[in-house]
Amino acid sequence: MSESVRRVLAGWVPDWPVVAVLGREPEPQCLAAVTERGRILAASGAARAAGVRGGQKLRSAQALVADLEVFDRDPDLEVQAFEPVADAVGALAAHLEVVRPGLLALAAGGAARFHGGEEALAERVMDAVEAMGHPCRVGIADGLFAARLAARVQQIVPVGASARFLAPYPVAELGEPRLADLLGRLGLATIGQFAALPTASVADRFGQAGVLAHRLARGLEARPVVARPPGADLTAEQRFDEPVLLAEPLVFTARALAERLHEHLAAAGLACERVDVEVECADGTTASRTWRHEGVLSVGAVAERVRWQLQAWQQRDLFDEASGGVVALRLVPDGLVKDPGRQLSLEDGDQEARARAERAVARVQAILGHSAPVTVDLAGGRAPGDRVVHTPWGDAHQERRADGPWPGRLPAPSPTHLPAQPAAVRLLDAGGHDVEVSARAEVRSAPARLVLPGGVSRVVAWAGPWPEQERWWDPEQARRTARMQVVVDDGRALLLAVTGGRWIIEGDYDT
C-alpha cells in the first residue's frame, strides 16, 4: 500500500464561517467577522480589506473597524449550511471525507479517471460548489497536508512532487508551534530544510512529534496506514427497539458508541483517522458521512462529529416520520494506524477518580459540544486577557511560559474582572480635549475626566502609560497600544487601553 494517497482538497475562502452564519454570501461592503475564544476566526472580504485578520484579537479588530459586526462561532450552524454542499461534491466521487465544515477531501485516483483527468475533476468540484452559491479553492497533491496547501493557491501538484512543492513553505505550516520555534532557532526555517534531515536524527532529537512532522515535510502521510486485522469487527453499532425521530436521543447514544468504538480499536492496538457515521431508517433507507481528523480521532472528537452530523441530518428531515425514524446507528473506523498510546507516570494520582471525572465531562461534551467544558490556565502575555487561556477539556494546554520575558507587560496587580465586550470611553484633560499618548509613551496632558457610557466621572488618580507594540515587523498587522490605570471619584479603579486614538475599558479592579 502506498504511503501517500493522491488527494483532492476542496476548501472555501477564509470567510466561509461568515457565510454559514449569515446563511448567504455577504454583501461586498459587509463588515462582519466570526470569533472564537476572543479571536477572529474568519472575516468577510470587506473586513479583511480594512485590516481584520484571522487570529487577531477581537478588541484589535474593533479598534480598526468600529462598526464591525461580530458573531460567535456556531459549529452546528456551519455543519447544517455545509451539508448540502458536501452532498453536491460527494456525487462526483465514490468516497468523500469531511475534514471540517468548509473543507472536503476525496481520493483523486478513480474520480480523476472517471471525469477525464485531475484538471477536469478540479473544475467539476469547483462548479459543484459554486453552483451552491459559495466560492471554492481546489488543490490536488500526494497526501492531505500537501493538498491543503495546494488548495490555497489552487494548484495541481504533479505526482511525486509534493516534497518539492512543500520545500519553500515555513516550518510553522507543519502545525507544531513548539517544534517550529525550535527549528527556527536551529536555523531550519523551511519545510525543505527540515525534510533534508536524516529520519533517525529527527527521531533522536525531536521525538514522536518530530517524526510525524518530518513525514509530512517529505510529502508522506503523518502515520502509515495499517491493514485491518483479519476477521476483526471494529464497527460499533447500536440498534433501537423503537425507531428514533429526534437527534437528541441519538447524541446520547453516540457518546457511548464512540467509547465502544475506541475499546474495539484499543483491543487491537489501533487508532483511526477517519470514521463513517451511518444511520439506518425503518423504511430501509440509509445515510452515511465520513469525517476525518488531521491527527487521531479521540472519543470526544468522534462524539462531537457524530453530533454535528446527526443535527445536520435532522435539519434536512432525513429521519422524519416519512422514513419511520432511525433503527440503527453505526460508527465504522477507517484509516487505521498504530495506536500511539499514553504513558502514565508514577505521579498521576488517583486514576479511578480521574477516569470518573473524564466520563462526567465527556457526558457534558456530548450534550453541549467539545469546546463547552474548559480548563483555565495562566500563560505568558502582555495584556491581562492574553494571560487567561481557556482550553477545551482534553486538548493540549497552552505552552506560553508565564514567567518568560514579555516587554510591555502590565505590572501587578492584574485586573480582577475583564469584560467580554470592552466598552468605548473618552479620556479628557482639564480643557476637555482627548488625552493622547505620544510615540515616546508619554501623555500630552494629564487626565481629568472619564466619559463613561453612563455619565462623566472625575479622575482622582492615574498611573502609566505602559506601551505595547505588537507585530512591528508586519506593516499590515502592526499595532501600538498603551494602557493606563485610573481611579475615578466614585472609588472605581479601571484599566484603560488606547489604540489608534480610541480608549476602551479593558478591566477593573476590586477596591
From TrEMBL:
SUPFAM superfamilies the record matches: DNA/RNA polymerases
UniProt cross-references to Pfam families, sorted A to Z: IMS
Name of this chain's protein: DNA polymerase
Domain UmuC: 28-151
UniProt function note: Poorly processive, error-prone DNA polymerase involved in untargeted mutagenesis. Copies undamaged DNA at stalled replication forks, which arise in vivo from mismatched or misaligned primer ends. These misaligned primers can be extended by PolIV. Exhibits no 3'-5' exonuclease (proofreading) activity. May be involved in translesional synthesis, in conjunction with the beta clamp from PolIII.
InterPro entries: DNA/RNA_pol_sf, Rev_trsase/Diguanyl_cyclase, SulA_CellDiv_inhibitor, UmuC
Entry's family note: Belongs to the DNA polymerase type-Y family.
Domain of life: Bacteria
Record organism: Kitasatospora aureofaciens
GO term, biological process aspect, one: DNA repair
Gene3D superfamilies in the cross-refs: 3.30.70.270, 3.40.1170.60
This protein's UniProt keywords: DNA damage
